[in-house]
Amino acid sequence: MDARAQPTFFYDLGDPGCYLVAERISSALPIVAEWEPVSASALGVAIDEVDREQIARDADAYGLQEVRWPPAWPPDSQLAMLAATYAKRIGRVVSFSLAAFRQAFAGGRDLGDQDTVLIAAAASEMHPAATLKGVSLRSVAEGLELATDRARGAGVSSLPAIQLGDQVWAGADPIAEAARVMGATGAQAARRP
Q1: Which domains occur in the chain, in start order?
Q2: How confident is the model at residue 72 (pLDDT cuts 50, 70, 90)?
Q3: In sequence order, what are the residues at sequence separation of 6 or more whose Cβ sits closer than 8 angstroms to the Cβ of residue 48?
C-alpha cells in the first residue's frame, strides 16, 4: 500500500457516527482524506438503529458539544446529501458537510428541512439560490448515485467508512485503524532505501 495515497471518507449527513468521524478525521489522519457523500439508504445502512447513548458518550469523549438529536428521527437526509454532492463539485464539500453535521447533531435541526440545508450552505459560502439550483440538477443526483456505487464497489457496507487503496475500515471508529495502518505503512516506506 502506498503511504502517500489519499484516503476516502464515505459518509451520509444523517448518520451520527459519520458526524463523530467528520469532526476528527482531518487531524487524525496523516494525509487529508477525500470526502465522498454517499446514500446510506442506497447502501442498505440503517441509520435509525444507532445507540444514542453510545453516540453521546463518544461525542463527550472526543470533546465535542453535547449531541442534540433532530426531532424527526431518522432524518430524511436526501436534500442535504444532494447539497453535499453539489458542494463537492464546487470545492466546498468539507465546509458544507461539517456545517450540516453540526446543524443536525449539535443544533438538533432537521436535515430534511430546506432552511437547515441553506444555513449550512451559507456557513460554507454557498449562495442559497445556487444551492437550490444545484440540488435540482439531474447530474448532481447522478453524482450521488455514482459515488454510492463506487462505495459499494469498494466493499463499503456500513458507515462511516474510510478507504485506502483496496482496504476499507468501517463502523464505529474507522479512524483509529486507518491511522494505525497509514502510520505503519508510512514508517515502512520511510525505511526503504
Answers
A1: 8-191 (3.40.30.10)
A2: confident
A3: 73, 74
